[in-house]
C-alpha cells in the first residue's frame, strides 16, 4: 500500500471512461499509485469491481458506475457520483473507444454510428458534464485518448480515422476555450497498443500478441505525465509510436 502522504496526485479526483481494460485500466492503476481517487466507468461490472479492489489496495478510494458511455445518462450519473463521493472532479480521461477496420465500401451506416458514438459522442458527453464542475473551481485537466489515426489517414480505417481526427479537433478547440479558465486540455495519440481493442474487427489475438505495438502501460505513463504537470504548464498533444515502427 502506498503511503498516504506520498504521491503526485494526493487529493485529486479522476474520472476514467472505458476503465475495464487496456489503456483505461492501466491509467487507473498509474493514477492510483500517485494517490488519486477514482470514478471508473465501463460496461463490465466484474472488471470494474476487481479494479476498484486493486485501487483500494494501493491506498486510494474508487467508485464505479456501470453504463454505456454513449448515453448521456451515464455521463451525468458518473459526474454526479464523483461530486457525491468526493465533492469535485479534477481530471477527466476520455478513454472509451472502439475500432472496426474496413474498406469504405464494406462499412455499414451502423458501423459508422457505433464508432462515432463510442469515440466522439462519449467524449463530448463526459466533457460537457465535467467541465462546468471544473469551471466553478477554476481548475481541471481534460484528456482525450485519440490515436495516431487522428493525425494521419490510414487506408482501410477511414471512419475510425474520422472519429479520432474529431477528438483531436475537439481538444484543440477546447484548449482555446478553457485555458483562460484554468482548465488544461490535451490529447494523446498512440499507435497500436497491445489490448483487446478491435479484436475480431480487423485485429486478431494472435496478431496483437506477436506484434511490437505499444503496451497499455506505456500510454498510461503519458496520461500520468499530463495529469501531473505544474500549475503553469500543460501538455497539448503527444504522438506515440514504438521504437520498432516509423511514424506513419
Précis, in short:
With 248 residues, the protein is α/β, with parallel strands linked by helices. It contains seven helices and seven strands, in the order βαβαβαβαβαβααβ.
Describe the 3D structure.
This protein is of the alpha/beta class and 248 residues long. Helices cover 44% and strands 15% of the residues. The protein has one domain: Rossmann fold. Helix 1 packs parallel to helix 2 (45-57) and helix 1 crosses helix 7. The mean pLDDT is 93.
List keywords for this structure.
single chain; 248 residues; alpha/beta; Rossmann fold; seven-stranded parallel sheet
CATH class (first level) name: Alpha Beta
Rounded mean pLDDT is 93
Q: Please report which band the strand proportion falls in: under 5%, 5-15%, 15-25%, 25-35%, 35-45% or over 45%.
A: 15-25%
Shape: globular
Could you say what the CATH topology is called? Rossmann fold
Count of spatially separate domains: 1
Total number of beta strands: 7
Task: Furnish the topology, listing elements before pairings.
Elements: E1 13-17, H1 22-33, E2 37-42, H2 45-57, E3 62-66, H3 72-86, E4 91-94, H4 109-137, E5 140-145, H5 158-178, E6 183-190, H6 205-210, H7 216-227, E7 237-240
Parallel strand pairs: 1-2, 1-4, 2-3, 4-5, 5-6, 6-7
